[in-house]
Amino acid sequence: MKNIKKFVRLYLEDLEAKKAKWGTDYPPQNWEEFEESIRKTHYKYFVEEEVDNPDIRTGLLVSLLADDFVDFGYYAIFSNLPLDFQDLNNVIYQIARSQHLNVYDLMVTGTRFHYILRALAANDTEPADTFLPDDAPCYGVMRYADMVVNLFLVVYRKREDLRERAVALAEKYLKSKRSLFDRSMVEYLMALIDRDAKRASKALQEVCNGYQKRGDVDWREKCFVAEIHGLYRLAKFVDEELFAQLKRPEHPSFLQEFEDWQQANGYPKGQLFYSYPEEMDYLNRILRAKLPTLSMDELRSEEKTGIIFARRLNEEING
Question: Does the N terminus or the C terminus of the chain have fewer Cβ atoms within 10 A?
Answer without folding.
Answer: C
